[in-house]
Each structure stands twice: as C-alpha cells, then as structure tokens.
C-alpha cells in the first residue's frame, strides 16, 4: 500500500526524522488557510499523487500552465495561485499514463536553503534477504539512471536484523554520503531512526530523494515515498486509515474486497489463473504470441464459485479486454468449481469477447463437462501453449 508524501513525512516525523513544517490541502477551500499557517518567505506547493517525477511533470489542462507539479512561491499570493492552478487538474509524469492522475490533494510546506542533494532509501535486499540502505551522493536524480551510468556512486548496505543499525553502519553511510560536521551528527541519529520506522511499520520501501544538506549544515528529509507490506497491514490500523482509494484502480479495490490478487495492466487479454507462478507463465506466453496481458489475476488455491465469478466480472470491467484466458491447474482449487464460477459469470455479464478455458488437475473431467454442456461459446484448450495460441487468434478474428 502506498501513501502520499505528506503522510509519509508525518510518519517519519513521529519517529523524530527532520522534516519541514507543512500543511496538507484536501479541498480547494483549504488553500488559503494552509498557506497562512506557514511564515515564508518561501513556500513549496506540491501535488500529491502516487507517482514519481512530479516536479518534471506537466498538467493536461491548459489552465495549469506548463509548470510542473512542484512549484516554488515567494509570496502568499503566488502560493495560492499555484495551488488553485494545480488542484483538480491531471498531472502527467514519467510514471503515469498519458492521461495522468487527477490532483485531489496538495501539500504546502516551508522552503529550504539547499547546499547538497543526496539519495537514501531502505528496502528489502532480495539477494541477502535482509533490509538494506541504498545511499548515493547523486540526490534528486532517478536512482536507476545513477545505477546505470555511475554505479560506483551507490552504496548498498545490508543490515543485520538482529543487531539493527550499528554505529559502524551509520559511519559507513555517512562516509558514502560525504557527511561532515552537523550533517554527520544528524546522519548518525537519522539512519537508526529510519530503520526503526521501516521495521516497526512493516514498510516495503522507504525512499528519501532528496535528502538534503541545508546551508546551515543540517540534514532534512525534503521528499519521502513510503510503501507498506499489504500482508502486514492487519497490525497497523493507523496506516490503513491513510489509504487513498482515489489513487487506486477501481478494479483493484474491488478485487481486494474479495481477497483476490489483481493488478491492472495495459494489454488486451484478460487472465484468470490460480497461483502466482502460473499467472506469470501465462502472461509470458501471451506476450510470446504477440499480445499483451490486461491484468494479473490470481484467484488463489481455495477460491469458491462466488470468488471465481467475482474475478471474472472484475476482468470484464476493463474496456480494453478483447478476450479472456482462464488457465487453471486444479489442486486444492477444483476444476469443476472454476467451471461453475466461469459459467455463472459469463451468464451474468453477457460476455461479448472470446473466452478460452484450459483446465487440468483435480476434477478436470467434471470441469470440462460443465463447460461443454453449458451451451456457451467457450473455446477449450488442451495445454498452456494451445490456450495462448487460441486466445491470440480469437481476438484477431
């Protein structure tokens, strides 16, 4: 689960991290009040959407002008003008589609005199199975570009989960970021603080880009992006309350209510599969045959007829879907249950696109019989390759 920058900063501030004073704006009527809460002389008006690259983004609406989604203001009047121009308009960044995301929230905060910009994140290092810091002196840039062009400027430091962040770890991070004086003293305090927030709140990623050294020599978290492990949210009702459903795909929201693993994609072939590995293989073979999957949808091993029907109907809500591939290997999930759910959903949705079904495993004969005797126009497939071939041919007519 992702949260907005202002929410991430509030979480980090509660742990003692240095962040600027700021005020969120949740409606256009709150703009002037938020601006008045800050003394100036510099205000920073930030669009709050779940996408990176906001500063370099552009608004679709001409009323918002050509400026990005992060703007500086040197008077209250200018700050209010920026806020009103951005609020409610669609911001397009490198991480959104061509339509962008509507800005429904803003964050207005105190400006800062920046001496240096640094990069710092905490994530799970899959290679070591441990939390790790990633640090670079190249702040304010895409870390992927830094890794590609100057990998020697990046330090990845795994942390022993038993020992936590030691003084030696903090010293190594300070050295990598070339921190001296007050900034080094701040870093020695900040790194254990961030690690504590990361582990206690079950974060999957904590990214600060940039972490700045100010002109007065101290550190400040200038931007923050935080994601949480969805499997651990039951331990954090306070974090669940931060969820902004307007930033999520409606189909993904509905899928979460049915406990379905569903992720919307940009392709034309809807997929319903049981098991993450089989789902990935199904999407790969669709691409092999020249098409793109419209979604990742794993109904899991213990789904019932109603859950299967719900998954099918969620897939059908995507207007880009031109065909559907159901690929089930029955173990705990029985093929006849899948067949009953698919038939029920097809009848309810008046399916108007080709449907290919491949069943194998527990009760496979019963499942195939249900589909064969349904009277519906369903294309059977013998194996995964056959299924992918048939659905790609079907949507091409």
UniProtKB/TrEMBL annotation:
It catalyses: GTP + succinate + CoA = succinyl-CoA + GDP + phosphate; (S)-malate + ATP + CoA = (S)-malyl-CoA + ADP + phosphate; succinate + ATP + CoA = succinyl-CoA + ADP + phosphate. The keyword ATP-binding applies. It comes from Henriciella algicola. GO terms for molecular function: ATP binding; magnesium ion binding; malate-CoA ligase activity; succinate-CoA ligase (ADP-forming) activity; succinate-CoA ligase (GDP-forming) activity. Its EC number is 6.2.1.5. Pathway: Carbohydrate metabolism; tricarboxylic acid cycle; succinate from succinyl-CoA (ligase route): step 1/1; One-carbon metabolism; formaldehyde assimilation via serine pathway. Substrate binds at residues 274, 331-333. Residues 9-241 form the ATP-grasp domain. It comes from the Bacteria. Keywords: ATP-binding, Ligase, Magnesium, Metal-binding, Nucleotide-binding, Tricarboxylic acid cycle. Mg(2+) binds at residues 209, 223. Its cofactor is Mg(2+). Heterotetramer of two alpha and two beta subunits. This is Succinate--CoA ligase [ADP-forming] subunit beta. One of its GO terms (biological process) is tricarboxylic acid cycle.
């Amino acid at each position: 689960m992702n949260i907005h920058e202002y929410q991430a900063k509030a979480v980090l501030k509660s742990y003692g991290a240095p962040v600027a004073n700021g005020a969120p704006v949740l409606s256009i009527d709150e703009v002037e009040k938020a601006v008045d809460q800050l003394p100036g002389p510099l205000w920073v008006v930030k669009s709050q959407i779940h996408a990176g690259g906001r500063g370099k983004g552009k608004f679709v609406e001409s009323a918002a002008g050509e400026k990005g989604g992060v703007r500086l203001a040197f008077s209250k009047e200018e700050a209010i003008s920026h806020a009103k121009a951005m609020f409610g308009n669609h911001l397009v960044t490198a991480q959104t589609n061509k339509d962008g995301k509507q800005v429904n929230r803003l964050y207005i905060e105190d400006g800062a005199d920046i001496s240096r910009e640094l990069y710092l994140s905490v994530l799970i290092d899959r290679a070591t199975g441990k939390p790790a810091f990633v640090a670079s002196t190249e702040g304010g840039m895409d870390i992927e570009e830094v890794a590609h062009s100057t990998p020697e400027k990046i330090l990845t430091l795994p942390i022993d989960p038993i020992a936590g962040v030691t003084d030696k770890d903090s010293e190594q991070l300070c050295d990598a970021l070339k921190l001296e004086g007050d900034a080094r003293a701040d870093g020695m305090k900040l790194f254990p603080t961030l690690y504590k927030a990361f582990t206690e709140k079950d974060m999957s990623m904590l990214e600060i880009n940039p972490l700045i050294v100010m002109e007065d020599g101290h550190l400040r978290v200038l931007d923050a992006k935080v994601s949480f492990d969805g499997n651990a949210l039951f331990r954090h009702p306070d974090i669940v309350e931060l969820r902004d459903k307007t930033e999520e795909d409606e189909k993904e929201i509905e899928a979460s209510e049915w406990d379905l693993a569903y992720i919307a994609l940009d392709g034309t072939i809807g997929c319903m599969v049981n098991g993450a590995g089989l789902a990935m293989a199904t999407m790969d073979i669709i691409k092999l045959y020249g098409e793109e999957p419209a979604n990742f949808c794993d109904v899991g091993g213990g789904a019932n007829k109603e859950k299967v029907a719900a998954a099918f109907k969620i897939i059908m809500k995507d207007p880009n879907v031109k065909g559907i591939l159901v690929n089930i290997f029955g173990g705990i999930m029985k093929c006849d249950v899948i067949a009953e759910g698919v038939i029920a959903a097809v009848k309810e949705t008046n399916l108007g696109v080709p449907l290919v079904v491949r069943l194998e495993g527990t009760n496979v004969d019963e499942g195939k019989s249900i589909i064969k005797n349904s009277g519906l126009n369903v294309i059977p497939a013998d194996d995964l390759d056959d299924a992918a071939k048939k659905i790609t041919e079907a949507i091409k007519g």
